Amino acid sequence: MAALRLGSLPPATLTSITVTKKCERFSGGVKVVGDGGGDNGFPPFLPKEVEKIKDPFARNLARRIKRLPVQIECSESYIMSSCVQPLVQTDANPVVLLHCFDSSCLEWRRAYPLLEESGLEAWALDVLGWGFSDLGRLPPCNAASKRYHLYQLWKSYIKRPMVLVGPSLGAAVAIDFVVNYPEAVEKLVLINPSVYAEGTGSLAKLPKVVAYAGVSLLKTFPLRLYANLLAFNDIPLSKSVDWTNVGRLHCHMPWWKDATVNFMVSGGYNVVSQIKQVKQKTLIICGENDKIVSNQLAMRLLFELPNASMQRVPDSGHLTHVDKPRRVVKLIADFARAK
Questions:
Q1: What is the per-residue burial (b if ≥16 Cβ within 10 Å, else e) of 152-163?
Q2: Nearest CA among 284, 294, 285 for reference residue 323
Q3: In what order do the strands lie in the sheet with 122-125?
C-alpha cells in the first residue's frame, strides 16, 4: 500500500489538487506515494491532537488513513479524500463503511480490524465535509455533493457493487446514495438509523453569524462529552473522555467550521420519501439501549423498507459498532456472505 497507481488520472489535473502526497511520473500515468508521517507513524495531515489519544485501536486506524484524489461535481478538479483502504482485495463484493453525523472513519476503530480478520474487504470512508480530507478550497457540502463525491470515489477505486454500511445519520447518507446510484450497492446495513429527520429544519434559515456561533458550540469538549455519555452505556469516565477526543479530532481541521455551516444551511438530509424506493436487501442493526434514536423508529423503518430484516444487540447504545464490535461484525459478515 506504499503507492497507488492512478493510470486514469490525467497529469494536467494535478495542478488543481492541493496535494499532501508526493507525486511521481511513471510510464502510463501518475503514482501517488503514501503520506508517510513522523516518528509516530501518523499521516502528517491529521491534527496534532491525535497525539493525545490513548485508545490503541484509534491510534492504529489513524495511522492507516490515506488520501485519494476524487473528482468533485461540475469540475475537473480533484480533492484529496481521506479513507482507510483494505490491505487485500477479495473476490467478494466489498463492505464500505460510512459514519455518523459530523464524525470520521475513526468511528470504526474497533470493528475495522475484526472485519479484516473475518476475511472481508473493508473500506472506511470519510463523507465529504467531515473526516480528514483536504478541503482547503471548500466545495459545496450539501447532500447532493456528498452523494456525488461518494459515487466518484466508488467509481474510481471500489468499482464493484458494495455492502454499504451507514450508522445513525450515515443511514440517511446510504439511503440517499442507493436510490440515486442503485448499481453501486448490493446490500445495505443500517445501524441505529436516523432517517426520519426532515433535514436541518429551521437551522437552515439561521443568519450566518448565528450558524457559526452554533457550530462553534458543537465543537466544544463539554457538549461532545455529553453526547458521548448518551451514546454509550456505562463506560468509565476516563474512557469517555478519550473517546470524546477521538470523536472530535476532525473538528480541528481548518475547514471544518465552514463545511459544517455549509451543510447546515443547505438543509441537510431528508430521505423520508426515498425509503420505499430502496430495492436492495437491508439489515437493520439496533442497539437495545439506544438513548439517541428510538427503537420505535427502527421498527417503523423495518416495515417501510421493501426488503429488510432486523437484529437487536443487547446492552448496547447508539454507537453499537463501537461498544459491541464483535457482535456487529458477525452480523455484517453473515449478512454480506448470505445469498
A1: bbbebbbeebbb
A2: 285
A3: 65-71, 78-84, 122-125, 95-97, 162-167, 185-191, 281-287, 308-313
List the one residue out of 42, 32, 89, 99 whose CA is nearest residue 65: 42
Q: Which three cell numbers stand for residue 149?
A: 463525491
| pTM for this entry | 0.88
- Going by C-alpha positions, the residue among 192, 177, 154 that lies closest to residue 274 is 177
* Residue 1 identity: M
CA 181 to chain centre: 18
Which residues share a beta bridge with 286? 312
Q: In what order do the strands lie in the sheet with 23-26?
A: 3-6, 29-33, 23-26
Closest of 20, 100, 112, 98 to residue 66, by C-alpha: 20
- Dihedral of CA atoms 221, 226, 227, 232 in degrees, nearest 10, equals 120
**Using one digit for the tens of pLDDT, what is the confidence trace for 274-302?**
999 999 999 999 999 999 999 999 999 99
Which residues participate in catalysis according to the annotation?
168, 290, 318
Per-residue pLDDT of 141-158, as tens digits, reads 999 999 999 999 999 999
Which domains does the chain carry? Answer: 83-337 (3.40.50.1820)
